[in-house]
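Here is a protein:
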Amino acid sequence: MASKPQEFDILVAKLSGQDMPVFAATARQIAEMSSKEESSISDITLEVLKDPSLTSKVLAFANSSENGIASAKINTISRAVMQLGFNVIKDVTLSASLIETVLKGQKREKVLSEIARSLHAATQAKKLGAVLRDVATEEIFIASLLQRLGHIAFWSFGGEQADRLEKAIIEHPDIAEEVLERDVLGFSLNELTLKLASKWSLNYALCDSLNSGIDNKKVRCIRLGHAVAKEVAENGIEGEKFDLLTRAISKFLNTDQEKTRSLIIENVTEATEVARNFGIKDLSKYIPKGDKQSLDSEPTRKVNEPDDMLQVEVLAELMAMHRERRLNLNNFLTILVEGISRGLGMDRVILSIIDKERTSLTGRYGVGVSSVDTERFAFQLDPQIPTSLSEAVRNKGVDWAGYSGRYDKFFTDEVKWRVRAEEFFIGTIQVRGRVIAGIYCDRSISGRKLTEESFMDFKYFIKTANAILAANF
């Protein structure tokens, strides 16, 4: 039988490699992007677009009344990043990824109450930070949300260990939970949070808030946010402890006590809206106000369904980049790829680049594709060895390969192996009359057939993109 320290290490390894690998990978990817000066709108956009559910949640957050940033509805991830900022989208992505991951685990009551408490605490802490004005509110939000990461992960994926601790808590309601954690597990769940934060490269404010020796404005916002969330969940807003908390927060913010109380109560309501933006219906069962609804995820529209309105909005966004003379080619192509993916209802879209010698076409990035798909997407542009894809690119065309393509006689088995599809659209992107890139798309994952209507839409996207580029370069 493993010792208590060994059990701790085994649990951390299990959470990272088996139970929460997607969240762990997302956290590391975001941390890596944060450390690179050259990370761009395109980088974070493509990271979000890998997950349709995450895409929906980020767009819901971007359009929420809480933000009030955009005067018009935000319909693309690229626009959301530009409007909200790189750091905000990173935090939203990480938060949504965490919530989606744990809701796929064991939905014991403790998991749902911990998510509710964390979202409520994060909302309170962020609003307190906004009053101070000189602290990074988004950093406060994510640190508050993740402060009980160890608790959330443990109650969702702890298995037999979680069963033992839950039994001890029920049998000994008079003993502090952290004491029981150490007695039953040999470690506290706060220690688990710190270990996961370190292993997954999470933000510094989170670690600071768990260090009793550190006290600054950000840390105080986080701790006070959690104190409010805990008190409201356990005793509501009418008790003596709530009044004491209100006075402490009023003094910290240097604001009138009644105004502080009103702010805190408003934040309780706001937490429900924040939860809804992350795909959770209602927190009222876990913040005792109102009726009892579940924390089931809201259904989201399948993003691979064609969306005529989104097509119009993406094309308008591309035109706006032209009119405002702010056309960055990389951002432009990222928005184009997103528009074709989500607007035309494609399962996979790949942007490929022609090399300087103009002898090969190689996949650069895409939506709905793995790194293996992108690496395998490599074609020689040799007229002596023609393929359906290379001929379309060499001749600056737009083609529907596998159905009515002009170059279907060159649709070889090797092409089918490289694209893993029986039919696809391919179009060329040109600057100053020279092809610089190809846009490939298909519906091979869902098995849906491409249509005449979608081909016409695809051709219009490519034609419009090339017209805008011709006017700017």
